[in-house]
Amino acid sequence: MSIDLRGTPVLVVGAGIMGAGIVQVAALAGHHVQLFDMREGAAVQALDKLAATLKGLVDKGKLGAEAVQAAMARIAPITSLAEARDAGLVVEAIVENLDAKRSLFRELEAIVATGTVLATNTSSISVTAIANGLKHPARLVGMHFFNPVPLMKLVEVVHGLQTLPMVAEAIFELSTAWGKVPVHAKSTPGFIVNRIARPYYAETLALLQEQATTPQVLDACLKAAGFRMGPCELMDLIGHDTNFAVTNSVYEANFFDKRYVPSLVQREMVAGGLFGRKSGRGFYAYGDGAGIPPLPVAVHEAPATAREVTVHGIGPIADHLEHAAIAALAPQGWGPARDLSSAWVGLSIDGARLVLTDGRSAQQLSRDLHCADVAVFDRPVVMPIAAGTALAYAVAPGASEAWRTQAGAWLAALGFTPLPLADAPGLVVARTIAMLINEGADAVLQGVCDEAGADAAMKLGVNYPAGPFEWLSRWSVDGVAGVVRALDAEYRGERYRLSPWLRRRAHHS
Ligand code: NAD
Fold first, then answer.
1. pTM of model > 0.90
2. Residue range 100-123, pLDDT digits in tens
3. Bridge partners of 91?
4. Would 10-187 and 200-294+428-509 be classified into the same CATH topology?
5. CB neighbour class for 383 (10 Å; exposed up to 12, middle 13-18, buried from 19)
6. Closest ligand 1 atom, CA of 100?
7. pLDDT of amino acid 450
8. 102, 204, 356, 464: which has the fewest C-beta neighbours closer than 10 Å?
9. Is the model's pLDDT at 297 over the cut of 90?
10. pLDDT tens across 70-98, in order?
11. pLDDT computed for residue 509 by the predictor
12. Are strands 390-395 and 10-13 parallel, antiparallel or unpaired?
């Protein structure tokens, strides 16, 4: 048996930003749609706005005039829920409040048929909790759209403890028919996207808290890793109040697991009303010609002539470094040596070491390699590595003055845009991506989603350039586990707890 929701009359409750988007998508997909909002006039107002939006899309040639006219004719605002007794599907997009959602669904159960599927667009409340108290909790399911609904492809189909698999399957099929990409998710705090994304913000906030660098440098490094927006500009766009609230809700819902602890840096900004774009100031100032200031990039002299250069290690990054070193040394008429047996990736230059991060700080590497002149650089993740890629690096505190300038000069000569940082373990990109993978691994371990679901969700829900398991396949379990363990060793506590999913697959447990 299966439930087919295609063509069924839809009731959308809540005429806010999400409700209006859901109405648009459902009506364009051919459904008759009713829209209800408890605020008088809100549904009519939302539909007027929708008509204007659709007209704009027709003017731009993105939609046909006839299709839009037909869709608008299928939509009706209603002033009483009782008018929706024929709905085969209800999508709720009201205020994010458990009691409000529960009482709405109870009221609806008295109106709609027993076979009507009840879907909630909640972004953070347990679907199981919303269903509690219903006569038929098995028909309640999460249908979590992303903002803006017409543009964002992802729908998280959230299974509560009592959700009937057939009901979730029907929403999955319907989402596909609406041109979306659905992903199954278990009702757990943050579902998939809002959970796995936490480290993207948390690692940056942690680096800012320990004064490793500036928001601009962090944004530049992560954009070089393929993210469309850096974490600081993204938090400014989302609004620090909203972003902080989501982090808090995931933290509380996980019984205050230290892994998700919110940031003092962000709490102070929220307390001060520095919400980001909407308030005119966040990490950056907005309005009156202000905005994100250009990245201050140092000009590096050519490195001093070396007597010995060896490229260490294996893999695509080592290969790239070899090519880059060959090009850098060509004018002097010689090339680098290559040592494929080294356990580390990087360059030795007259005994000094330029090392790809494995999670250890430059200071730690300096101790472990018995070498004062050490610099560590971040992990380039976009392949092939483009000329001018922004790359964080740090020099060991005990390094000579000469090596301090030479480390940056060598990275520049190798084709990077080097950005100096305080000696933070795992620097920026390796640390952030390792923690995103770690979170994705834990989500899979706990049955929140599968690997493909995690990848699709992060790419389509928050536009990540790759999903956690795609990054993992291009890196290695041991490499990722090494970075997380090094962070754990440095910071102690639960925050950098390695996921058992990774530990079980790593060679060194
Ligand atoms: P919104 O504030 O823009 O709109 C909510 C609407 O619901 C308002 O028009 C309000 O009058 C109406 N409403 C409130 N209580 C009601 C009730 N009991 N009955 C009928 N109408 C009621 O909110 P939004 O941003 O559209 O969010 C709606 C839901 O979608 C929330 O659960 C939210 O967590 C979720 N969500 C939001 C986003 C987002 O980015 N905004 C993304 C995904 C999910």
1. yes
2. 999 999 999 999 999 999 999 999
3. 12, 119
4. no
5. exposed
6. 18
7. 98
8. 102
9. no
10. 999 999 999 999 999 999 999 999 999 99
11. 60
12. unpaired
Read off the tokens for 185: 């998710």
- Taking alpha carbons only, the member of 476, 498, 507 closest to residue 313 is 476
152 C-beta closer than 6 A to ligand 1: no
H helices of 254-308, in order, are 264-271
CATH code assigned to 200-294+428-509:
1.10.1040.50
Query: Which pLDDT score, from 0 to 100, does residue 298 have?
Result: 83
Question: For ligand 1, is residue 187 a contact (CB within 6 Å)?
Answer: no
How confident is the model over 139-196, as pLDDT tens digits? 999 999 999 999 999 999 999 999 999 999 999 999 999 999 999 999 999 999 999 9
Which sequence spans correspond to the domains of the chain? Answer: 10-187, 200-294+428-509, 309-420
* 147 Cβ closer than 6 Å to some ligand 1 atom: yes
Tokens of 303: 């490195």
The matching CATH number, chosen from 3.40.50.1820, 3.40.50.720, 3.30.300.30, 3.30.70.330, for 10-187 is: 3.40.50.720
Average pLDDT over residues 357-367: 97
Q: Mean pLDDT across the chain, nearest whole number? A: 96
Say if ligand 1 is within 6 A of residue 98 CB.
no
Residue 186's CB is within 10 A of a number of other CB atoms, namely 19
**Topology of the domain covering 309-420:** Transcription Regulator spoIIAA (3.30.750)
Testing ligand 1's pocket by substitution, the residue of 108, 123, 146, 460 carrying the most ligand atoms inside 8 A of its CB is 123
DSSP, res 369: T
Residue 104 φ/ψ region, left for φ over 0, alpha for ψ in the -120 to 50 degree band, beta for the rest = alpha
